[in-house]
Amino acid sequence: MSVMKILVSGIRLIAAQAAATTAVARTLVTGLTLILGCGVAAADYRETVSVLRIGMIENHAAAADPLKLEAVQQAFSDALGISVEIIRMSSYAALVDAHASGRIGYAIHSARSYAATDAACGCVEPLRVPVAGDGSTGFRSVLAVRDSVTRPISELRIAYSTEDSVSGWLIPQRAMKAGSLERPELIRAGDVTSAMKLYDDMQVDGFFGWVPDIPESTGLDPAQLFGGWTAQSAGITGSTRLIWSSQPIPYGPHATHRSLPEDLVKALGDFLDLMPQAAPGLLDIFEPVFAGGYAVPDPRLYENLRNLVVAGPADPNG
Description:
Shape: elongated
Number of strands: 12
Oligomer: single chain
Helix content: 40-55%
Strand content: 15-25%
Order of helices and strands: HHEHHEHEHEEEHEHEHEEEHHEH
Structural class: alpha/beta
Radius of gyration: 22 Å
Largest sheet: 6 strands, mixed
Number of helices: 12
Distance between the termini: 64 Å
Strand order of the largest sheet: 2-1-3-11-4-12
């Protein structure tokens, strides 16, 4: 059986498992074929790169299902004209180590793992950033309080989730250390749900969270806290306002190692750019959380995270 037949069979099995209709399955296969037809037949990189190794953490939706993993791997391989191997990593720490050392050439990062890789080696660059269904390409850390709160921030009781949270702890801590945000009394909740409960029970005046950063948006909307989750679950939007926000932090990028040939990097970018229109079913497999395709990121925005991964843990009291 040919490689293309194996790929098409795999895609049809995935569509059947997801209870897709025959029409949807046919659209997926047709769209994927269009992408493959846009391959880079004259690319010089095929003379020097025999295998492209792509890293993703093992709990990624595409990595968890063997059929989906094979479909994505084969789609990349056929589009690029070289062998592609997807390496499943046990954690983002393992992904950082593999990418910084050059054992993988392409990786799907979180924002923080990309910043850690860049800090470790200076050898990676963001290729594309996923776009959410609401058009956002990143987020902002925010401080949300009740409308009735009028006291200075330094006199407030503010909940946060855990010290591992980028939006709920690391970014606000950096702002407090820099003096751009007053330091309130900080209450560790343990997770976002618990922070919301403290807020609903009137035990704290506010909390640190995040809102999507949508290009050309006119302002920050409390209804979009945690992507709209809190508005639906806690009913807080009618009495909550945002009194501080960070600089935008882009979503975790697809990133390439600087050792890859430039024409291979371009081919990878073209492949991702074509995916939403030519093979939306493949995008659903590869980006189950982000439905808006991809955008070209500004590498400078990731500098907002770099010192978070090279500095030591912060003290809640100072």
